[in-house]
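#struct-pred

JT: dropping the chains for the assembly here, can someone run the whole complex?
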Amino acid sequence: MSRMALEGVKVIEWGEYVSAPFCARTLADMGADVLKVEHPRGDRSRRHGPFPGDVPHREQSGLYLALNANKRGITLNPSKATGRAILLRLLESADVLVEDQGASFVDGLGLDYVSLKERFPRLIVASLTPYGRTGPYRDYKGHDLSANAAGGISFGNGTPQREPLVVPAAQVSFMAGLGAALATVMALVAREATGRGQLVDVAEAQVVGVLLTGYHLPTYIYKGIPGYRAGNRFRLGLYPNCVLPCKDGYVCINCPQMEQYQRFLALLGNPEWTNNPRYRDRRAMTEQYPDEAEGLIIPWFMEHTKEEIFALCREHRIPCVPVQTIQEVVHDEHLASRSYFQELGHPDAGRLTYPGPPYRFSATPWGLRLPAPTLGQHNREVLCDLLGYIPDDLPRLRAAGVI
Amino acid sequence: MQEGSGPLAGVRVVDFTWALAGPGCTLFLGMLGAEVIKVETAQYPDAMRRGAYSVSGDLDSSPTFNSANLNKLGLRLNLRRPEGVQIIKRLVAVSDVVVENFRLGVMDRIGLGYQVLRQVNPTLVMASSCAFGSTGPWRELAGYANVFNAMSGMGSITGYQDGPPTELRDSIDMRVGTNLTFAVLAALYHRQRTGVGQYIDHAAAEAITRHLGDAVMDYAMNQRVTPRRGNRDPLMAPHGCYPCKENDTWLSLAVGTDDEWRALCLVLGRPDLAADPRFADGAARWAQQAELDSIIGAWTCQRDARQAMQELQEAGVAAIPSFSAKDLFEDPHLRARGVWQDVEHPKLGTTHVQVPPWRLSATPASVRRHGPLLGGDNDYVLCQVLGMGAGEVERLAGQQVFE
Amino acid sequence: MTAMAERDLLAGITVLEYATMVAGPYCGKLLAELGARVIKVEGPGGGDPARRRGPFPEDLPDDELSGLFLYLNTSKQGVTLNLETATGRDLFRRLAASADVLVEDATPGVMAAIGLDHDALCSLNPRLVYTSVTPFGQTGPYSQYRAYPMNLFHAGGEGYTLPGSLSNELFPGREPVQGGTYLAEYDGGLHAAIATVAALIARNLTGSGQHVDVSKQEAAMMLNLLNIQLFANTGELVTRRRSYHFGGIFPCKDGYVILYPREDRHWQGLTAAMGRPELGTEERFRTWEDRYRHRDEVNAVLREWVAAHTKEEVFQTAAPSGCPAAYFATTEDVFHSPQFAARDFFEEIEHPSAGRLAYPSRPYGFSEAPRSQQGPAPLLGQHNREVYCGLLGLAPGELAELHRAGVV
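RK: done, full complex below.
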């Protein structure tokens, strides 16, 4: 295998659930050597599932398996003095610490950034917290739901008359993890120049706020219009730009160019209503009476299947795609042709299919190399072979709650 | 005789046991309410009648024999006479259980083996206990507690780290007897439900090996021999027996959690130790246990063991003096639980014995009577239980059947 | 149920075990071994701490591979349940309602505080035998005291008399020692099992269960009744200075042995086996009293002979002579003992994580109840579905919900 982009970068991940593990996973996929430091009770995502056959099993949670591939794992509780000492020894040879432990908590353990910097000036600390390491919210608890809410994305998500919705499947946490990974790589680049590490203070809610940059924020700043929920359509813009039902599911259509719209109307046989002035102002149709306007074309969609619509629209060069179910995604021939899904064996969970490379570098590969570690799988390798503990110490460290 | 209200009220036991292992079993059966008839010959009275620790001249005046044979009735019989054997058969016919701990084959030689006795009483539960059980190459070997202790492995794992193995003695016999009691009770329970009697082949050495099963598992898993550890623990520290103020008084003290450690430091008047990272968790303390031992020993040796216990226990630290028999006899907790009971003995006067260690709320176990005088209950057994007339007893006496 | 299972002595009995470490679980093991269905209830946070005690294969800690746990929980079913939740307590009540026995080891008062004490459960199920195993019993000034296994051993009065004899000669004035591994805990568990079966016997007569209060301290004291009651009745105190009048422990070439020629026939047999039959009948050694009077000479003869031989040689020579003789077997010796092998004392059990291992099995054979193959210790929560869905009738979806809510 060719050299990987982050080969030689040593990362200690002291985090759980989604954001920090996804950050480290993203680095690991590009070749970083990630050691996951897991609380002895195990990463919370181990209890999350989904589980094969719905039988809960610590080593078979889908979320955990997906987020922790390509890592080695040890159990360690840095709240214990010996656990802390072990963590510090691991940091001696690390380039990056990814952690999500909360500002006051790490401060209380003497693992605040100032202390770490003093000992390890080249260390990059990527700290993921709901609201950041400073400011009045620094000690507030948070999770994906609250990051959605606090970041402002929920308010604009959902249908107008109903309560705000989260972006599903912990997407905000994934975004935060991805953002942290990107920031970490930038800090690594900076270190090339400065020779020094730094603290990367990632506030998950702010990462979400950044996602609003292009649309909701300027809309508010320029027009004074707060976020709003428009359902499955754009609130502003040119008709049609929405998700519509069809015979066997949903499709998504968006025709910003006039030519596209005209080809669409031609496909529909240039129906009678196109002559009605009320239906000639595409902006008004979207922004003032979208239900009525969409009602005009829904009957045509309801007569056709996703597949038929997709084929017709491609033929007529109309931007309209089916809304794919997960099953369709997994069996998507395009993804298959790019070998997107890959299989990996795991000692307890067996062979499973994992999503593959989201990006392909022409020279330095992305790689799925290791299954997610079982709880404490590399304790011996790390504690004994690397740090010099004798095997006899391990049961004691376990009983003391250290590992 | 005075039947108990215990679970075995109405159960009659013919008891051929001697020394301590077997008598321990029938002691427990008697405490649980069974009527136990101890059979002895004038030629070979139970060796314990001469005392275990101090040698007694009078066969009816050993306090240790009395302790081990409470509640039992004494039948003196000459088993070399066919009439004696015949009396046993009549007795077994109206009994439920026979217990013996002779060397293998003795009961058969007397003519009272299980095959004979089951003809007399088809639902009989008969238990035979010998050193190594009735099968295998060592089945004929003699054994006392010291043999079971040594061959079971218990002796080799008990003692100072730098010292020789340890002779556990009468407690080992009692453990064998306890184990045998469980087997007899299980058989009695089964008989109650099914009407089926049982022969129990019991191996004393095996009974003790069971009490070090976890140590044997280490050999099974790792081919590792369990060493002697003194009072130390492979995982916990501090964990030891510390000298107290009075000569030869000791306090056992163990710390299993960080909370207990902090509590101990406060009692020792050493909050600095609680804050010292060298002792902050179990693994760290274990590595420094010699130092901790000397700190704790310096504190305990200024103090009365019982007062130190109270002070530490009130703070939540597991500390108990290494109680001598004297400590136990005077102990306020045991007094409050009514552990000591006075029992009148015809020769010894008022004796002090321990009540049964199980408190059954509805059918209490009990000590109802002193141990048997040699042949002290011949009349009761022969006349009341077997319904012999005075003439028959006299005739048999004339034939030396009771000598 | 198979015919074989019917012959198990305790077939048909259901035991709920809410106990950790050694004593309570050993009680449960003894009942399970004879055919009772034992449902072990483990709390949240990793279950029974015995899972963290080891020994572990290659010393690698794994909650499913602790030798102590594997040994003490054979043939049980395992469920997880969080009694800190109201739903958890409710499920516990439902389990107790259908059980014959509950074995618990909570600090006295704790079960009452969560509404699961004997009175509460007995009103649901009057036939329940409710066995409590605690260090110092349910009542009395020490009832809330803490005791680890070592503390308990010393609390029972035996530690004060150990190690004695040769150790005492070598190290006079040293501290008392505990029995190997968890000795007093095993004792407590065995006593609890006795009292539990006794209460089941009583139930067959009275129709009712009852509360059984087992103090591990009192159980340990009962095993030491000779020396403790000797003091109570004579004022004579047994200490670590105790030793045999003659004979006892002697170092040999590769370990230690016991020779104990107490009876005249023992002495005669032993000396003959040693190749010195003349000592057997010599005037100064003839009777117990003679040997006692010349105990130093007796011991010198034995010490010298033993020192020239291996433990195996001493045992093979002396034991057949009729004299009580033994060597101090290490766990390795025990594991390879030809006697234990001949009796199939070690039983192989296959465990999903630990694989096939040999476990010490039962020391009693029952003529009418052949030994049945024992099952492995349960994985944490292994039988949640079987017990909660099978026994209590929960839907699988409800179980998943309980899992998410941290109840199981």
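JT: nice. The longest helix of chain A spans residues 171-194. Chain A is about 40% helix and 15% strand.
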